[in-house]
């Protein structure tokens, strides 16, 4: 029998538990007055001998969420679960996926390897940032792409649409959506004018004039990159700019920043513990797709 | 050549670096707008081939401090340090040192084992809470006791002093201070009146009437236990109550709570990233003792 533990930071997890037919195990979660976290599985005897799916996310409060996952892993090992995996729709620290400058850690690997050491059999993640780590980690991270779902919700009123990745690193995500829907795609190239020093973003091959552009990316944090890209594309004659991003962290005034730069609609996945409420922002439910993936894993893992 | 890295949360670390004759390596520390942390060793080439002492503490913001330590460990491994250890005057999560109720994790072991996996050769800790883990962990944690130093600063105006541990678990700490100074010690026993149901704390053997009591403990968080003990001891005729606690987290109104309950003076160790400023609170510098211990380790570790 499959059991699920849904961490308090990701309410969507209850539907996931339902869709995979798992019984939800209760967890006591609290924070002591001094800031230390505490968790306890309410009925550990139900975890014993079971396959357990832990559902949590890592935004907001990335560090707290990480430690809570380690605690749940430890509690499940001690409760003698047959095996346990984690569904972490948003896996934080994934952008620090290599040593960009000497002296840096690779935080993404720290997070993943520590969760592995905590006994999680696999991590199921929505739109993991780092393609290089995905190939390095030998299927330990199961990446669930959702850019097609996000783009589809924006297609209803799109004219001559084109999908653009904001950089070459995000191209795979754009291609995935474009191919499944059947529209053109390209990526933006950053260039600097040799005389004025001005930086600009232009699509590598396509022309955007008169077309609706859908920018596809995985994480939108301060909205700076998208705002800049949007302004450039508008200058190049784009008709309208839409944004399809899996993880809408939307820090500070990110939303205003993008809308001011000409963005008309934003589609986000429901991967975080928070949501913004705004008429131009639409959340796409990725729980059914996660459920399909989790069921497959549970079927194949002993 | 020994190098030191002092994390931004523990300014006392610079003196420690000085006392062990280490060159301090710069670290860039920042927090991204979305809350993720970033660290980078400024001159990693200086870490290469060196013994490196990382000095950080785990209060306030235990979870952030923990992850920063993991990042520094990873960065040092990648910078090819010959070996590195961590001085963590206050090691958080040490109170959850066993499964008190089924379904719980052992958070103290998670923290210690994860730091070990991050490559820290040893952890040097002031007054580690868990005696059971100290014996389990095969000298991985080097525990630096300081209760004698704290008690000494309170002895100047103590009359017929007696040292009391608030429970049997803290007895070793009380004994250590008492033996090094040469005064009586005992521990408090919690008992419940069978008729009224009232809980009281009384010393197991000694009488406190007319004597100055110095309560010795490792961590004071909300001050609840000490306030209660203080009230009981005053009822039993104690002359004055002093408190010697290594880690003064002093959450919320902890200080007022203790002073209201009759506590006259409080001695704390400088193990945290924060201090309170109050005429009845005195900080005792434990850096020289830490330095002695670190020098010994560096001398014996290849």
Q: How many helix segments of chain A?
A: 10
Physical arrangement of strands within the biggest beta sheet of chain A: 11-10-9-12-13-14-15
Gap between N and C termini of chain A? 12 Å
Average pLDDT reading of chain A: 96
Structural class of chain A: alpha/beta
Q: How many strands, what sense, and barrel or not for the largest sheet of chain A?
A: 7 strands, mixed
The percent range for helix content of chain A is 25-40%
CATH C-level category of the largest domain in chain A: Alpha Beta
Biggest interface between chains: A-B, 54 and 54 residues
Oligomer: homodimer
Total separate domains of chain A: 2
Radius of gyration of chain A: 20 Å
What's the CATH topology name of the largest domain in chain A? Rossmann fold
Shape of chain A: elongated
The low-confidence runs of chain A, each spanning 5 or more residues with pLDDT under 50, are none
Strand content of chain A: 25-35%
What's the CATH architecture name of the largest domain in chain A?
3-Layer(aba) Sandwich
The helix/strand series of chain A, from N terminus to C terminus, equals EHEEEHEHEHEHEHEHEEEHEHEEH
Topology, please?
2 copies of one chain form a homodimer.
Chain A: E1 2-6, H1 13-19, E2 23-24, E3 27-31, E4 37-41, H2 44-47, E5 51-55, H3 62-78, E6 83-87, H4 107-117, E7 123-126, H5 131-136, E8 141-144, H6 147-154, E9 162-165, H7 171-181, E10 184-192, E11 199-203, E12 212-220, H8 224-235, E13 240-248, H9 254-260, E14 263-269, E15 281-284, H10 287-300
Parallel strand pairs in A: 1-2, 1-5, 5-6, 6-7, 7-8, 9-10, 9-12, 12-13, 13-14, 14-15
Antiparallel strand pairs in A: 3-4, 10-11
Helix pairs in contact in A: 1-10, 6-7, 8-9
């Amino acid at each position: 029998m499959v059991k699920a533990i849904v961490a308090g930071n990701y309410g969507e997890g209850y539907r996931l538990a339902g869709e995979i037919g798992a019984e939800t195990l209760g967890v006591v979660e609290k924070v002591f007055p001094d800031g230390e976290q505490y968790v306890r599985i309410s009925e550990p005897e139900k975890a014993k001998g079971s396959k357990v799916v832990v559902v949590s996310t890592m935004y907001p409060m990335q560090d707290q969420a990480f430690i809570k996952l380690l605690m749940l892993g430890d509690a499940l090992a001690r409760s003698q679960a047959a095996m346990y995996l984690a569904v972490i729709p948003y896996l934080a620290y994934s952008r620090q996926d290599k040593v960009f400058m000497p002296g840096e850690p690779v935080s993404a690997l720290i997070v993943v390897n520590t969760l592995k050491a905590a006994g999680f059999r696999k991590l199921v993640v929505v739109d993991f940032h780092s393609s290089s780590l995905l190939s390095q980690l030998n299927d330990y991270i199961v990446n669930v792409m959702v850019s097609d779902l996000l783009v589809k919700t924006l297609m209803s009123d799109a004219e001559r649409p084109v999908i653009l990745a904001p950089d070459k690193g995000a191209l795979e995500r754009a291609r995935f959506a474009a191919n499944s829907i059947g529209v053109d795609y390209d990526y933006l190239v950053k260039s600097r004018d040799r005389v004025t020093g001005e930086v600009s973003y232009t699509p590598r091959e396509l022309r955007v004039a008169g077309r609706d552009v859908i920018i596809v990316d995985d994480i939108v944090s301060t909205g700076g990159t998208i705002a800049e890209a949007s302004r450039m594309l508008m200058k190049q004659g784009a008709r309208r700019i839409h944004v399809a991003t899996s993880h809408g962290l939307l820090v500070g005034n990110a939303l205003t920043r993008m809308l001011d730069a000409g963005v008309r609609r934003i589609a986000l996945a429901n991967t975080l513990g928070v949501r913004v409420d705004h008429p131009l922002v639409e959340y796409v439910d990725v729980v059914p797709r996660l459920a399909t993936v989790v069921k497959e894993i549970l079927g194949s893992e002993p």
